[in-house]
Amino acid sequence: AVYLSGFKKTKDSMGQKLNDMAYKYKGINDEFLEELTIVLLESDVGIETADEICERLKRKAQQYSTITFRYAMSFLMEILQDLYNETPSPELEYPHEINVIFLVGVNGSGKTTSCAKLIRYFKDQGKSVGVVAADTFRAGAIDQLARWADKLGVTCIKGKEQSDPSSVLVDGCRWAKENKIDILLCDTAGRLQNKQNLMNELAKMHRVVGREIEGAPHHVWLVLDSTTGQNGLSQAKIFQEATNVSGIILSKMDGTAKGGIVLAIKNILHIPVYFIGLGEKETDLRPFDLDSYLYSISE
Ligand code: GDP
């Protein structure tokens, strides 16, 4: 029930629309598939993934002479589950002495806020946490993160605005080693003016932390604003090409009914969604849970 709140809007729209179809269709036919495609597109599943879903549903339906709407829905849920599970979602683990996590994403995606939410998340698990304000690009990002850190009672390692993020990252790593910190969260800048530039910047950040702490960064999470829909997806592609994104934090799910983006991310980018953001507070973060997600669509 707690998780479900994250998909309330998805439930109210995609779930509701699918339910409404029950009154119109006795089974799967062309009109059904057409309307299903529209519902999927309206919830940001994307055309490629929507077509794939409909194609699979059609194939499944062909095995039966008649099929009730309820069965059609249960087939649909099976297909969505398969589609989701075809890309593995490795369990999140933090086995290193210091686990370095990079947060990447464009300005305004909710990176800094997600960083605050993660501080809270890890602290609640009893881990020691530090943050590095390496987003030296966006004006105010450093202060914003420092304020969160203060409020949440963790140390924030910071440099000056417009300074080289790599130097503050090195400071952060050294501080984490001295203080035996379990989790080091790094809020990095994602300047998207061109891919080459982004690639160079991220590569440099990887190099410097890798020199300080073996294997670091251990996780690279891309913060994606769920309200930007398919646009967000193309941004994600650029980041994916520029660096080894290992997971997605889908922010602002409280503000959108377009929960279908989760499926598009999995199907197109093959990156697991690990967390969803549900508001502006530090407590507004939930681990992504496939069952509650599917439940919100089907019930
Ligand atoms: P950054 O530029 O990527 O660091 O973005 P911020 O963390 O500053 O977030 C941009 C705006 O989105 C801020 O006003 C945040 O309060 C807001 N925000 C971030 N995450 C969420 C979320 O999950 N839900 C809602 N409603 N707002 C969010």
Summarize the structure.
49% of the residues lie in helices and 14% in strands.
Mind explaining what this structure looks like?
The chain is α/β, with parallel strands linked by helices and 299 residues long. It has 11 helices and 8 strands. The chain has helices at residues 8-20, 30-42, 47-61, 69-85, 111-124, 141-152, 165-178, 195-212, 229-242, 261-269, 290-298, and strands at residues 99-104, 129-134, 155-158, 183-188, 219-225, 247-251, 273-277, 285-287. Strands 3-2-4-1-5-6-7-8 form an 8-stranded mixed beta sheet, sandwiched between helices. Helix 2 (30-42) packs antiparallel against helix 3 and helix 8 crosses helix 9 (229-242). The longest helix is centred in the last third of the chain and has 18 residues, at 195-212. Guanosine-5'-diphosphate (GDP) is lined by residues 105, 107-113, 138, 141, 251-252, 254-255, 277-280, 284.
